[in-house]
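Narrative of activities, Objective 1.

The group set out to show that a structural description can be obtained from nothing but a protein's sequence at a throughput compatible with the screening campaign. Below is one input-output pair from the validation batch, recorded exactly as produced.
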Amino acid sequence: MNPSARVQSAVDLLDAIIVATRDKGASADRVAAAFFAQRRYAGSKDRRAIRDLAWRAIRSFGERPESGRAAMVALAARDEDLAVLFDGSSYGPALLTADEARAVEGVLPGWLTPLFSPLLAEAEWPALLERAPLDLRVNSLMAKRAEVAAQWPEAEILVQSRDGLRLPTGFAIETSAAYGDGHVEVQDLGSQLIAEACGVRAGMTVVDLCAGAGGKTLALAAHMTGQGRLIAADTSRDRLAQLPPRAARAGAGFIETRLLNPHREMAALDDLSSACDVVLVDAPCSGTGTWRRNPETRWRLDQRDLQRLVSEQARLMDLAADLVAPGGCLVYAVCSLLACEGAAQAAVFLERNGGFKAERPSFGAGRVDGAGLLLSPAHDGSDGFYMVCLRRL
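Output recorded for this entry:
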């Protein structure tokens, strides 16, 4: 493909992604996979160039563009090398005109801007869309961090976490022996710190209430040294089914899984009522802290979605509170930087539940935000998270 044809293909890919975000369809990654599957003639260099250009556009616009061309025209307005590729050739984009639509560049969608935590200064916004590094958690059930780090000269030890390493973006970790042997898991620093905030120990009874595919469950298993009772629960059968083989690979065969029925979760958890030392609620959220990995989600979220998520978070926190034993801890976390999902959500929970008090996790990361801590890409080098420990009296 010539350079102009690549630009037009990036426009076409952006059009498909814009429609998917508007209609709550597939993720941008899945849209791209389907797009290239239908264009077998595009070689690997072509696909990489097209994807890089499309994602450059996605990262450049907080508001969803009117079209892929409007996004690309806006980029071309400040990039002469890109502008000359609008040459009107057979497979390239049509010539630029002075009056055509241009997307407006920016980081945050306008309606979301006032909802972010006041701790997040405007100077930090660009970091929300930088490419994320590759963070690993060394599985202490099977390996020691120093020994794993010695395998890769480029590895950085993440001093904020007990088992964290960082490798350059694009490192082929899944083909390494350390990954295949279960010695490491791919996990962002912030997610590792959520598991550490739980303060679990061997012999405890612990529930990961929104376990998904079990990334944080596996971290909890390692912190428990494989001893005690650890229950991974979720309402998604497909996601939960990914955990048993991951647990076997990680040497964490003691993990139990429980599939829950939405809004009838206690039917499967009743035996754990007031019996758990720690309940982790890594709740469904806006994902505003993970834009580095999924920048198109800025175009997908709307006010109705956010209201539904905030209500669901509150419901899950109250459900989890019923599982916590006296003296035990409910750890609430979201990969969000919005106050309504973080500090405000924790404050409202404490108003509803007088039998709990807030405790902030203690480690060398994050900023105090209400009752808990806020982590952000610019301040902590992690995805954005809010977390708080709520101790039952």
